[in-house]
Automatic annotation (TrEMBL):
Signal sequence residues: 1-17
Pfam families linked: Por_Secre_tail
Residues covered by the Secretion system C-terminal sorting domain: 159-220
UniProt entry tagged with the keyword Signal: yes
Protein name per the record: Secretion system C-terminal sorting domain-containing protein
Alphabetically ordered keywords of this record: Signal
Matches recorded under NCBIfam families: Por_Secre_tail
InterPro entries the record matches: Secre_tail (IPR026444)
Presence of keyword Cytoplasm: no
Length: 227
Protein backbone atom coordinates (compact mmCIF):
# COMPACT_ATOMS: atom_id res chain seq x y z
CA UNK A 1 0.00 0.00 0.00
CA UNK A 2 2.04 2.88 -1.13
CA UNK A 3 -0.93 5.23 -1.38
CA UNK A 4 -4.52 5.39 -0.18
CA UNK A 5 -6.10 4.16 -3.39
CA UNK A 6 -4.08 0.98 -3.08
CA UNK A 7 -6.64 -0.28 -0.60
CA UNK A 8 -6.95 -3.36 -2.66
CA UNK A 9 -9.99 -5.29 -1.75
CA UNK A 10 -9.99 -8.81 -2.60
CA UNK A 11 -10.40 -11.24 0.17
CA UNK A 12 -9.47 -14.38 -1.32
CA UNK A 13 -7.69 -17.59 -1.84
CA UNK A 14 -7.55 -21.22 -0.98
CA UNK A 15 -10.47 -22.70 0.70
CA UNK A 16 -10.66 -24.41 3.98
CA UNK A 17 -9.24 -24.56 7.47
CA UNK A 18 -6.79 -21.76 8.17
CA UNK A 19 -7.15 -19.84 4.90
CA UNK A 20 -9.63 -17.31 3.51
CA UNK A 21 -9.95 -16.31 -0.14
CA UNK A 22 -11.47 -13.06 -1.31
CA UNK A 23 -11.98 -11.45 -4.70
CA UNK A 24 -13.86 -8.19 -5.21
CA UNK A 25 -13.83 -4.40 -5.66
CA UNK A 26 -12.74 -4.68 -9.27
CA UNK A 27 -13.10 -0.94 -9.88
CA UNK A 28 -10.09 -0.37 -7.66
CA UNK A 29 -8.33 -3.69 -8.01
CA UNK A 30 -7.91 -6.26 -10.73
CA UNK A 31 -9.98 -9.41 -10.76
CA UNK A 32 -7.54 -11.39 -8.65
CA UNK A 33 -7.53 -13.40 -5.45
CA UNK A 34 -5.84 -12.48 -2.19
CA UNK A 35 -4.84 -15.14 0.31
CA UNK A 36 -5.44 -14.60 4.01
CA UNK A 37 -3.68 -17.00 6.37
CA UNK A 38 -4.59 -17.36 10.01
CA UNK A 39 -1.69 -15.90 11.98
CA UNK A 40 -3.08 -16.40 15.49
CA UNK A 41 -5.96 -15.45 17.79
CA UNK A 42 -6.71 -12.36 19.84
CA UNK A 43 -7.46 -12.21 23.57
CA UNK A 44 -11.12 -13.04 22.84
CA UNK A 45 -10.26 -16.20 20.93
CA UNK A 46 -11.09 -14.63 17.56
CA UNK A 47 -8.93 -15.55 14.60
CA UNK A 48 -6.57 -13.04 12.99
CA UNK A 49 -6.00 -13.41 9.25
CA UNK A 50 -3.37 -11.66 7.12
CA UNK A 51 -2.45 -11.71 3.45
CA UNK A 52 0.75 -13.34 2.31
CA UNK A 53 3.27 -12.32 1.29
CA UNK A 54 2.85 -9.60 3.88
CA UNK A 55 4.81 -7.10 1.80
CA UNK A 56 4.92 -7.59 -1.91
CA UNK A 57 1.72 -8.93 -3.48
CA UNK A 58 0.96 -7.04 -6.67
CA UNK A 59 -2.09 -4.81 -6.44
CA UNK A 60 -3.57 -3.98 -9.84
CA UNK A 61 -0.23 -2.69 -11.07
CA UNK A 62 -0.38 0.14 -8.56
CA UNK A 63 2.06 -1.26 -6.06
CA UNK A 64 1.73 -3.81 -3.28
CA UNK A 65 -1.11 -4.59 -0.91
CA UNK A 66 -1.27 -5.97 2.61
CA UNK A 67 -4.58 -6.79 4.31
CA UNK A 68 -5.86 -8.07 7.63
CA UNK A 69 -9.18 -9.48 8.89
CA UNK A 70 -9.69 -9.16 12.64
CA UNK A 71 -12.24 -8.64 15.41
CA UNK A 72 -12.74 -5.19 16.98
CA UNK A 73 -14.16 -5.94 20.41
CA UNK A 74 -14.68 -2.28 21.32
CA UNK A 75 -16.99 -1.74 18.34
CA UNK A 76 -18.20 -5.39 18.35
CA UNK A 77 -17.53 -5.92 14.67
CA UNK A 78 -15.25 -7.72 12.23
CA UNK A 79 -13.00 -5.45 10.19
CA UNK A 80 -11.17 -5.69 6.88
CA UNK A 81 -8.06 -3.51 7.12
CA UNK A 82 -5.43 -2.28 4.67
CA UNK A 83 -1.90 -1.56 5.80
CA UNK A 84 -0.58 2.00 5.58
CA UNK A 85 2.34 0.82 3.51
CA UNK A 86 4.97 -0.74 5.73
CA UNK A 87 3.62 -4.21 6.49
CA UNK A 88 3.25 -3.34 10.16
CA UNK A 89 -0.44 -2.36 10.43
CA UNK A 90 0.48 0.32 12.96
CA UNK A 91 -1.98 2.77 11.33
CA UNK A 92 -4.28 0.52 9.28
CA UNK A 93 -7.03 1.85 7.02
CA UNK A 94 -10.55 0.47 7.48
CA UNK A 95 -12.02 -0.80 4.18
CA UNK A 96 -15.03 -2.90 5.26
CA UNK A 97 -16.68 -3.72 8.57
CA UNK A 98 -19.35 -6.23 9.52
CA UNK A 99 -21.39 -5.52 12.66
CA UNK A 100 -24.29 -7.86 11.94
CA UNK A 101 -22.59 -11.19 11.44
CA UNK A 102 -22.50 -13.89 14.07
CA UNK A 103 -20.47 -12.16 16.78
CA UNK A 104 -20.11 -15.36 18.78
CA UNK A 105 -18.19 -17.07 15.97
CA UNK A 106 -14.43 -17.31 16.24
CA UNK A 107 -13.82 -16.65 12.55
CA UNK A 108 -15.08 -13.86 10.24
CA UNK A 109 -18.47 -13.99 8.50
CA UNK A 110 -18.67 -14.72 4.80
CA UNK A 111 -19.71 -12.08 2.28
CA UNK A 112 -23.37 -13.16 2.43
CA UNK A 113 -23.64 -13.08 6.24
CA UNK A 114 -24.62 -9.86 7.96
CA UNK A 115 -23.42 -6.79 6.06
CA UNK A 116 -19.84 -6.11 5.07
CA UNK A 117 -20.20 -2.32 4.80
CA UNK A 118 -17.87 -0.37 2.53
CA UNK A 119 -16.04 2.45 4.31
CA UNK A 120 -16.56 4.99 1.54
CA UNK A 121 -14.48 7.65 3.25
CA UNK A 122 -11.45 5.45 2.58
CA UNK A 123 -12.41 3.92 -0.77
CA UNK A 124 -14.09 6.93 -2.36
CA UNK A 125 -17.11 4.70 -3.05
CA UNK A 126 -15.16 2.95 -5.79
CA UNK A 127 -15.80 -0.55 -4.46
CA UNK A 128 -19.44 -0.41 -5.50
CA UNK A 129 -21.04 -0.61 -2.08
CA UNK A 130 -21.38 -3.40 0.47
CA UNK A 131 -20.05 -6.86 -0.27
CA UNK A 132 -22.56 -9.33 -1.66
CA UNK A 133 -22.49 -12.70 -3.32
CA UNK A 134 -22.99 -10.88 -6.62
CA UNK A 135 -19.98 -8.56 -6.48
CA UNK A 136 -17.46 -10.68 -4.59
CA UNK A 137 -16.45 -14.15 -3.52
CA UNK A 138 -15.23 -15.15 -0.06
CA UNK A 139 -14.54 -18.74 0.85
CA UNK A 140 -12.56 -20.81 3.29
CA UNK A 141 -12.37 -20.27 7.05
CA UNK A 142 -15.47 -18.05 7.28
CA UNK A 143 -18.78 -18.74 9.00
CA UNK A 144 -21.70 -18.88 6.63
CA UNK A 145 -24.80 -18.95 8.83
CA UNK A 146 -26.37 -16.31 11.07
CA UNK A 147 -27.37 -19.21 13.31
CA UNK A 148 -23.80 -20.42 13.64
CA UNK A 149 -24.68 -23.23 11.24
CA UNK A 150 -27.47 -25.37 12.59
CA UNK A 151 -26.14 -28.90 12.32
CA UNK A 152 -29.64 -30.19 13.01
CA UNK A 153 -30.94 -28.51 9.87
CA UNK A 154 -27.86 -29.34 7.85
CA UNK A 155 -28.24 -32.98 8.86
CA UNK A 156 -31.59 -33.10 7.06
CA UNK A 157 -30.06 -31.85 3.82
CA UNK A 158 -28.38 -34.47 1.65
CA UNK A 159 -26.36 -34.36 -1.53
CA UNK A 160 -25.93 -37.55 -3.56
CA UNK A 161 -24.32 -39.47 -5.12
CA UNK A 162 -20.93 -38.72 -3.67
CA UNK A 163 -18.59 -39.32 -5.47
CA UNK A 164 -20.44 -38.09 -8.56
CA UNK A 165 -19.71 -38.22 -12.28
CA UNK A 166 -22.49 -36.20 -13.93
CA UNK A 167 -25.43 -34.92 -11.83
CA UNK A 168 -25.50 -34.30 -8.10
CA UNK A 169 -28.91 -34.27 -6.40
CA UNK A 170 -30.03 -32.26 -3.35
CA UNK A 171 -32.76 -33.30 -0.93
CA UNK A 172 -34.16 -31.97 2.34
CA UNK A 173 -34.39 -28.29 1.41
CA UNK A 174 -37.54 -26.42 0.39
CA UNK A 175 -36.45 -22.78 0.13
CA UNK A 176 -33.27 -22.95 -1.91
CA UNK A 177 -32.23 -19.81 -3.76
CA UNK A 178 -28.70 -20.28 -5.10
CA UNK A 179 -26.26 -23.13 -5.66
CA UNK A 180 -22.52 -22.56 -6.06
CA UNK A 181 -19.62 -24.94 -6.50
CA UNK A 182 -16.08 -23.92 -5.50
CA UNK A 183 -12.77 -25.61 -6.15
CA UNK A 184 -10.46 -26.37 -3.23
CA UNK A 185 -8.51 -23.28 -4.31
CA UNK A 186 -11.58 -21.13 -3.67
CA UNK A 187 -12.41 -20.55 -7.34
CA UNK A 188 -16.10 -20.33 -8.28
CA UNK A 189 -16.81 -23.13 -10.78
CA UNK A 190 -20.63 -23.19 -10.88
CA UNK A 191 -23.23 -20.60 -9.87
CA UNK A 192 -26.90 -20.95 -10.72
CA UNK A 193 -30.42 -20.64 -9.40
CA UNK A 194 -31.22 -23.43 -6.95
CA UNK A 195 -32.26 -26.72 -8.50
CA UNK A 196 -32.47 -30.14 -6.93
CA UNK A 197 -30.18 -31.54 -9.62
CA UNK A 198 -26.87 -29.87 -10.54
CA UNK A 199 -24.87 -30.72 -13.66
CA UNK A 200 -21.20 -31.19 -12.75
CA UNK A 201 -20.22 -33.12 -15.87
CA UNK A 202 -17.76 -30.49 -17.05
CA UNK A 203 -15.86 -30.28 -13.76
CA UNK A 204 -12.41 -31.83 -13.63
CA UNK A 205 -11.94 -34.76 -11.24
CA UNK A 206 -11.23 -33.63 -7.69
CA UNK A 207 -12.74 -32.38 -4.43
CA UNK A 208 -15.22 -29.48 -4.47
CA UNK A 209 -17.33 -27.43 -2.07
CA UNK A 210 -21.08 -27.21 -2.77
CA UNK A 211 -22.67 -24.12 -1.21
CA UNK A 212 -26.47 -23.80 -0.93
CA UNK A 213 -27.96 -20.40 -0.09
CA UNK A 214 -31.62 -20.25 0.94
CA UNK A 215 -34.20 -17.51 0.45
CA UNK A 216 -33.85 -16.53 4.11
CA UNK A 217 -30.06 -16.07 3.67
CA UNK A 218 -28.99 -19.30 5.40
CA UNK A 219 -25.96 -21.01 3.86
CA UNK A 220 -25.01 -24.70 3.97
CA UNK A 221 -21.82 -26.22 2.62
CA UNK A 222 -20.91 -29.79 1.65
CA UNK A 223 -17.80 -31.33 0.18
CA UNK A 224 -18.10 -33.76 -2.70
CA UNK A 225 -15.81 -35.69 -5.02
CA UNK A 226 -16.08 -35.39 -8.79
CA UNK A 227 -15.02 -38.63 -10.46
Amino acid sequence: MKSLYLLCLALGSTAFAQTITFNGCHNLFDNQNYTFNKTGVDTYGKGIYMTTPIDGQDCSGLGTCEFKLQWNNTLTRWEFLADEGYGTFTSPILIYYNSTGNNSALNPPGNTIGTWTENTSATGSQCGGNLTGANSTMSGDVHTSMLATSEAVKGKIRIFPNPVSDFISISGIENGKLVQVYTMAGQLAVSEVFDRKINVTLLSPGIYLLRITTKDSQTYEFKFVKK
